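Justification of resources, computational component.

The compute hours requested in this renewal are based largely on the per-chain cost of generating structure records like the one below. Each record pairs the submitted sequence with a full structure-token output. That output is archived, and it is also reused by downstream analysis tasks.
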Amino acid sequence: MVGAMESLGIRMSIYHSPSASAFPSRKPLLWFGLLAFMLSACSATVSPDRRILQHLNTYGYGKAYAGNFLEESYATIGDTVEYKEKNHPDDEIEGSQVVQPDGTITVQEIGTVHVAGLTRSEIATFLSERMSLYYTDSAVIAVTISARDKQYFIMGEVGSEGAQTLAGELNVFDAILKASPEKSSANLGRVRLIRMDPVDPLIIPINFNDMLRGDSTYNVSIRENDIIYVPPTMLAQFAYFLDDLLFPVKQVIRGLGGAFFNTRRTNGSNNSFFF
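The structure output for this chain reads:
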């Protein structure tokens, strides 16, 4: 009987052993599923808030007034607009006005005029048409714009990072040299020129080393608000990664070192008191 039970027990163990291996635990599968769900949730694109979209549609994207000042000057907030009527000099219709925050200037006989975003010729045409209503013949108004300095931005592995003055025509080659790229960390073969736009942004990859070999294909002119990014090399990226990884350790060591130094200094002052 015992032998029969033992043989039955053996048979049962032999029977149950394959079933355990044939149906593995589902816990790892559940963990993998949960991890995949969390990753997909983190990478999912969050739709913009309706209030944000309403604000952007009402007040615009980026700067309110922009253009290509290399082709023709245009008026923005803070610029000075000078005007003078030329066909009737005796009337002395002329003046100089600073564009107000609402984009307007005040002109004799006409009143408040919105000029922000308009080019010099557009302002002259508009003022001449409005002024001609007060004369039997046409009025001709000459306009000049004294604009503030425009800006572009350069970021990354350069010595002069941040906003730069765009006083006149400037190309990518000159802008990068002016910013003094870092010799040990700048990846000049993967420079990017970023021209922001809410609908169709433009990103131009630029190989600065090709320019040194005489290829000026991508030596484009810089426009207002352009961004030039000079990325780090792979070796520099690895060094920055290690620096970030060791930052907490360095902070702890620095704190312990400061505490030890203060203790030594305190003990030294106490000893000097007794001796």
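The radius of gyration is 36 Å. The mean pLDDT is 77.
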